[in-house]
């Protein structure tokens, strides 16, 4: 068995897959891509993943792309404990609906403050011509980057993104209350928890934890996720934005 994961340390989608691999105790070779250097757009990588994004899993030569798909693939192919998908079909359907929500609402929303806070200085240092060429080269991120531009997302975009992140917190708190917690579907984490995990960790990292100040169940959920054995090897040093970008850490500290 050979598992190769092409990913990036700070990529939220990569963090999902690393967590599943680590939770399952699976040995894998990690090939880290430098996204700012354009490793994900090189011909050899696009031959694996034509979307030009991370992560990509290669299992014994078979290529699997899209983080949600990869997570479900790993659970199907490696069903050993811990099981990350409920046995009950109704609970499994609930898990998948939570995963779809994570993909459609908080996953894209968290990119707006992330790019504005952490990545914008890099783009501002580029010429307009270089920036547009970079944006045009990204199959799935072109419109997103062009809407941001080299001046950042406008206040209205930030407000909408924060609203969606707030909706996510409410959705999580409601699910935890129904299940009894500490996780979304009860005492053990499922792929639904792992799907939303990188968003909540990112929110905490960039000082957005106040969004769950009146939802203590979400804070307890985060503590329970961090207590999982798979968390530390998933979030190795350099995986957080504030670890990668010192200017962001200083900026956030000054704002407190």
Automatic annotation (TrEMBL):
InterPro entries: Glutathione-S-Trfase_C-like, Glutathione-S-Trfase_C_sf, Glutathione_S-Trfase, Glutathione_S-Trfase_N, GST_Omega/HSP26, Thioredoxin-like_sf. Residues 88-248 form the GST C-terminal domain. Residues 1-82 form the GST N-terminal domain. PROSITE patterns: GST_CTER, GST_NTER. It comes from the Bacteria. SUPFAM superfamilies: GST C-terminal domain-like, Thioredoxin-like. This is Glutathione S-transferase family protein. The lineage of its organism: Bacteria, Pseudomonadati, Pseudomonadota, Alphaproteobacteria, Hyphomicrobiales.
């Amino acid at each position: 068995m050979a598992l190769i994961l092409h990913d990036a340390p700070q990529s939220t989608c990569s963090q999902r897959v690393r967590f599943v691999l680590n939770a399952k105790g699976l040995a894998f070779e990690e090939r880290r891509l430098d996204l700012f250097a354009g490793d994900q757009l090189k011909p050899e990588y696009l031959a694996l993943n034509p979307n030009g994004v991370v992560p990509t899993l290669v299992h014994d030569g078979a290529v699997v792309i899209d983080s949600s798909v990869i997570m479900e693939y790993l659970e199907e192919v490696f069903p050993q404990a811990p099981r990350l998908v409920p046995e009950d079909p109704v609970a499994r359907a609930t898990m998948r609906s939570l995963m779809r929500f994570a993909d459609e609402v908080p996953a894209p929303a968290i990119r707006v403050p992330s790019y504005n806070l952490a990545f914008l200085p890099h783009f501002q240092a580029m010429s307009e011509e270089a920036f547009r060429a970079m944006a045009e080269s990204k199959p799935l991120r072109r419109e997103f980057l062009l809407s941001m531009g080299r001046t950042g997302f406008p206040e209205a975009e930030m407000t909408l993104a924060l609203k969606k992140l707030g909706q996510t917190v409410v959705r999580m708190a409601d699910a935890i209350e129904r299940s009894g917690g500490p996780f979304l579907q009860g005492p053990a984490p499922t792929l639904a928890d792992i799907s939303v995990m990188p968003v909540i960790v990112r929110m905490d990292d960039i000082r957005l934890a106040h969004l769950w100040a009146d939802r203590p169940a979400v804070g307890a959920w985060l503590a329970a996720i961090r207590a999982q054995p798979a968390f530390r090897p998933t979030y190795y040093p350099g995986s957080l934005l504030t670890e990668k970008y010192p200017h962001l850490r200083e900026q956030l500290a000054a704002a407190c």
